[in-house]
Amino acid sequence: IALRPQAPLLPGRTLGVLGGGQLGRMFVHTAQAMGYGTVVLDPDPDSPAGQVSHHHIQAGYDDPQGLAELARLADAVTTEFENVPAAALATLAARRPVAPAANAVALAQDRAQEKAHFVRCGVRCAPYAVIASAEQLAAAPAELLPGILKTLRLGYDGKGQRRVTTAAELSAAWHSLGQQPCVLEQWLALALECSVIVARGADGSIVHLPVQRNLHRDAILAVTEVYAGNLPQALVEQALQAAISIANGLQYVGLLCVEFFVLQDGSLVVNEIAPRPHNSGHYSQNACDLSQFELQLRTLAGLPLTAPRQHSPAVMLNLLGELWFAQGAVAQTPPWAEVLALPGTHLHLYGKGQARPGRKMGHLNVTGPSPQAARATALKAAALLG
Ligand code: ADP
Ligand code: MG
After folding, report:
1. To test the ligand 1 pocket, which listed residue (109, 170, 261, 264) has its Cβ within 8 A of the most ligand atoms?
2. N or C: which end of the chain has fewer CB within 10 A?
3. How far apart are CA 218 and CA 30, in angstroms?
4. Could you tell me the distance, in angstroms and rounded to a whole number, from the CA of residue 337 to the centre of ligand 1?
5. Dihedral Cα 268, 271, 277, 280, nearest 10 deg
6. How is 30-43 classified by DSSP, letter by letter?
């Protein structure tokens, strides 16, 4: 049985984060702005969140001593990293309130369990088959081809995925992934991608951010655009209902992102869930009166959840490591002064020492008085960044 705060954890208490990446860093910034103490557990001595937290426990996610220290220092613990061992969350949950719960994180870590949950909730996902053995490979339904083979576990930003068109390619792809358990999904003709972030409290109350429209490049999120009229209203309502069913079905406590595909026939298909803040929710920092990080904090601390309101149309540009090499082979600082001369630009950098292609180094939130203005500024910023 999960421990829950008896009363809200108020500023002055200490909040813990398992994982020290950029999502943890932005959670820590939010918690500190509200007067909370923070403690981060991450093995990297220079992790983005560890750099800014009051306490940084430098230990592996499954290190018993590190976890004991985290439970000692923190009044409640959340996670920012999808692949933390669910067992570590379960260990912590014996001593402190933990949100999200280990079982929800474990489900989100396994594409087969995740899809089975969508089916249970009556939310449509891509046709799929689990391929964990040579028998299942041989029996893979032909109608799933052309398809995309994804490892059940540990995939992110398109890693651990292979597109396949024939049975022979499927077999080669499964072997190239080391014959590890995978799902084969039918390749869908996408019109667009969108996502929604919901925050659900221990009392079952639930609020959400606006439905976000996402553009991926090479399977990595590149741009998120959020403003009224950007998506058909019927789709927005369907996505919200689906996300709420998925969260309620898990009795989820915490912040949850649900990613969707919109097919060319206009229908909605759920892709995957993330039991943590999400890259596609970063615009909320500057465009909404409650950011996804404050929503995460409120669910963790047992504070009231009020409905977030978006006050500005927004475009978020992801800043990947390539930008540091736009002018040549030697890393250079991107032209921040020029970018920040554009009205409504908000720079967020994650404190990562080394830029590498594909590495998420930061993001730029662009807000404007109108969707047109925000988009025009985002285009100018993108042109400056090359
Ligand atoms: P990750 O965990 O790496 O984010 P996703 O399953 O979300 O993996 O896939 C990454 C991207 O690849 C998606 O956002 C989408 O653009 C594309 N993609 C994934 N699965 C499919 C599919 N079945 N049909 C079409 N496009 C897909
Ligand atoms: Mg994804």
Report:
1. 261
2. N
3. 31
4. 35
5. -60
6. HHHHTT-EEEEE-S
The CB of 127 under 6 Å from ligand 1? The reply is no
Indicate the range of 149-158, 173-182, 195-204, 265-274 predicted with least confidence: 149-158
- Phi then psi for 103, rounded to 5 degrees? -65, -35
Substitution candidate for ligand 1 out of 110, 128, 150, 161 with most atoms within 8 A of CB = 161
- In this predicted structure, the answer to whether residue 260 has a pLDDT above a threshold of 90 is yes
Q: Is the pLDDT of residue 157 over 80?
A: no
40-85 pLDDT, tens digit per residue, is: 999 999 999 999 999 999 999 999 999 999 999 999 999 998 788 8
- What's the confidence (pLDDT) of residue 1? 55
- What is the number of the ligand 1 atom nearest to the C-alpha of 150? 6
Determine if ligand 1 sits within 6 Å of the CB of residue 96.
no
C-alpha torsion angle, residues 12, 35, 311, 243 (rounded to 10): -50
What's phi and psi for 216, nearest 5 deg? -105, 145
Please report which confidence band the pLDDT of residue 386 belongs to, taking 50, 70 and 90 as the band edges. Answer: confident
Exposed/middle/buried for 79, CB within 10 Å: 0-12, 13-18, 19+? Answer: buried
Name all domains of the chain by residue range, CATH numbers in brackets: 14-98 (3.40.50.20), 127-186 (3.30.1490.20), 190-385 (3.30.470.20)
pLDDT for the residue 83: 82
